[in-house]
Amino acid sequence: MKNLKAIMEKMDLRDKLCEISQLYGKLETAEDGRVFMGINYRFDSDRFMDDNIGSLLGVSGAKALIEIQKKHLEKSKHKIPLIFMHDIIHGYKTIFPSPLALSCSWQPELARKSSRIAAKESAVSGLHLTFAPMADLAVDARWGRVVETSGEDVYLNSLFSRAYVEGFQGNDVKDSFSIASCVKHFAAYGLAIAGKEYNTTEASEYNLRENHFPSYKSALDAGAKMVMTSFNALNGVPASGNKWLLQDILRKEMGFAGVVISDCTAIVEMINHGYCEDSAGACQKALEAGVDIEMVSITYFKEAEKLIEDGRLDSKLIDNAVMNVLKLKEELGLFENPFKDADEELEREVVLCKEHRDYARETARESIVLLKNDGVLPLSKGTQKVAVIGPVANSRQMLDVWFAYGEEKDCATLYEAIQNDYGVRYAKGVGILTENKKEIGEALELAKSSDIIILALGEAPLMSGESGSRSNINLPGFQEKFADEIFALGKKVIVVLYNGRPLAIPALNEKANAIIEAWLPGTEGNNALRDIIVGDYSPSARLATSFPYNVGQCPICYNRYNTGRPPKNEMKPARFSAGYVDCGVTPLFPFGYGLTYTTFEYSGLKISADKMTRTDTLTVSCMITNMGTREGIEVAQLYIRDMAGSLIRPIRMLKGFERVSLKPNESRLVTFEIDNEMLKFNTMDNGYCSENGKFRVFIAENAHDTNFVEFTLV
Ligand code: BGC
Asked: How many CA atoms lie within 13 A of 591 on its CB side?
């Protein structure tokens, strides 16, 4: 145990300001030949800062990090080890499906295990902390970062946030192969108005408490060591200067005692927000709000000294921030072993090893959603005259923008993955955004001479992720037009979609024989797809986010409010009922939706009593039967609707689910328990309680099923 106070006492103000600053860790050479630790010379930093910086981001590899740490310890005044941080979002080099895809597995266990693997690969490569999980909720499919979320539902999102943290951190961040986890982006970044990246957000406290805060809290309850502020202004105040968010909610209410870091340059960006006039103001607001580490912009280093001299800033704020950072270094065990798990030999052995790749294949299989199937799938092995066509048919772009150290060269293409199973030929047809008459002609010729066409379409990875917002969520470019030419040939067409966000694809849904949503499935994604296409594995994933008919329906979420004039016919709202004159109010594919290679029947929904007190537990049950000829997994979903409250309540909320595997003709009774805790909500007077009255309970295949039973809370 280090005496952190004693270290602090030896530090002067400039040392402390370095300790709470973070720079990119790339070694760069400036024009005058000086070698810098980061990109900081662009922000006119100086050598002293480089030598005494507290943490670095964005650099990895055991050799490099051991060397950087050694040099740092030689040069820095107080020999305080660096923390190396990086975005290890869904894998280090073995890349798992993007978080939105993984959440469609409805198996938080997969997030736990895949982040355990990611932690191991990262740790042996020298990293100490990951900027994950992202606990922001997916609200609007236009927003590029929905790909990084665990979907639109607060309950599912909270389970996944927790699982990611448990996976990264293990039992103790000090242990071998554990890394610390930073939950982000606090808060409500997903509410970016109109899905426009970095946009301002407005939300009632009711909405924040009901839908947005719980998944960050869940990560904190799992022990996340760090919280990252978000880029957005929330209700008029940028998150990095938002005292209410960072003090009242995060520190006091949620009880967070770890480190708060700003998002990248988010502190200096408060000037652009119009919240501060200059970088001194930004520095002051961020420190007063309680941001401990400033990422990449360096207002703390440049401005804090003068602010203190002028009596505008309390130096205790800096001491608090430094102490938080030192404590984290202590928790990671860096004072005893500044290199932690960095080990070149192990790195060679562990990173992208077969065991990890196999697990990536398993997670991808569990994340791929079957959206439509008229019986063409699974496609028997040995089928001849199969054509695989489209911009993604022979592409290795299986990784989203947060691929860390993953490489496309390690991903098989779909064409390669199914080559041993079918007599298959390939043509590109169109690009994701481009068209070429000759290539279209070749693809149509190939399609004509084939019996089955696998049409691989989608978005380029850069069309989602940070800065990947779109104003239109159709298939990009000429793909839809090209697909129409293929459909016109009258062949059987299986569409495979590769995309980061929900797409608006009603026409495709009408014409295709089958649609498989592959998402951005990671290193082993196409091998997993192969397993599903040939039927070695029956798909079991369910959408964690709704797929709208068109962009005009966004934001669309299953747990909406009813309004005073709910339409009787949700597909065709009548005049003067809530909806559109040109479109229904339901999505094309609802939350919770997904098919498999069999079908299920739900029957005999019943509840143990029609009255409940706050100490009771009711049981609700229903029989599920596999009606098909293949074994399959059903995800039975429990939804509850509070029929009236002191604040209006959503038309339903997910409260539980169970995956049930059933053989042909097999039936199983699925039961859920309902207790008072599940009925609570954030009431008007800042309370969190249940209210007497009627509740509806659904055990459903997806958020649209209408079969319910009722009870009254007394
Ligand atoms: C992103 C964060 C990320 C950070 C560091 C920012 O641009 O918003 O999610 O963790 O960069 O890479």
From this structure: 28
Residues 359 and 335 in one domain: no
**Is 90 exceeded by the pLDDT of residue 292?**
yes
Residue 139, in any domain of the structure: no
Q: Are residues 326 and 364 in the same domain?
A: no
User: Is the pLDDT at 553 greater than 70, yes or no?
Assistant: yes
- Alpha-carbon distance of 311 to 391, in angstroms, equals 61
What's 605's domain CATH number?
2.60.40.10
Is position 132 within any domain? no
* pLDDT score at 42: 47
Whether ligand 1 lies within 6 angstroms of the CB of 184 is answered as yes
Question: Is ligand 1 within 6 A of the CB of residue 197?
Answer: no
Please indicate whether residue 140 is annotated as part of the active site.
no
Cα dihedral sign, 44-45-50-53: negative
Catalytic residue (one of 263, 292, 410, 531):
263
What phi and psi values does residue 389 have, to the nearest 5 degrees? -130, 150
| CA-based max dimension of the chain | 80
> Are 335 and 358 within one domain?
no
User: For residue 41, what pLDDT is reported?
Assistant: 46
Question: 405 with 293, same domain?
Answer: no
Residue 585 is assigned to a structural domain of this protein = no
> Taking a C-beta distance cutoff of 8 angstroms, is the pair 545, 591 a contact?
yes
Q: Which residue has the least CA distance to atom 5 on ligand 1?
A: 264
The residue-averaged pLDDT of 12-18 equals: 97
- Which residues share a beta bridge with 668? 624
Which residue has a Cα nearest atom 12 of ligand 1?
87
Residue with CA at minimum distance from ligand 1 atom 4: 264
Asked if residue 144 is part of any domain, the answer here is no
Mutate to test the pocket of ligand 1, among 131, 168, 216, 240 (most ligand atoms within 8 A of CB): 131
Model confidence at 35: pLDDT above 90: no
Nearest-CA residue for atom 7 of ligand 1: 264
Q: How far is the CA of 145 from the centre of ligand 1 (A)?
A: 11
Sign of CA dihedral 288, 289, 294, 298: negative
Q: Cβ(131) to ligand 1 under 6 A?
A: yes
Specify the CATH number for the domain of residue 546. Answer: 3.40.50.1700
Q: Both 382 and 487 in a single domain?
A: yes
Mean pLDDT, range 447-458, rounded to an integer: 98
pLDDT (tens digit, 9 = 90+) per residue, 619-649? 999 999 999 999 999 999 999 999 999 999 9
**What was the pLDDT predicted at 218?**
98
HSE-CB at 471 with a 13 A cutoff on CA atoms is 0
Q: Render pLDDT for 201-242 as a digit per residue (tens, 0 to 9).
A: 999 999 999 999 999 999 999 999 999 999 999 999 999 999
pLDDT given for residue 34 in this prediction: 59
Same-domain pairing of 324 and 366 = no
pLDDT of residue 401: 86
Same domain, 234 and 359: no
Q: Is it the case that residue 37 has pLDDT exceeding 60?
A: no
- Please tell me the distance from the alpha carbon of residue 190 to that of residue 211, in angstroms, as a whole number: 11
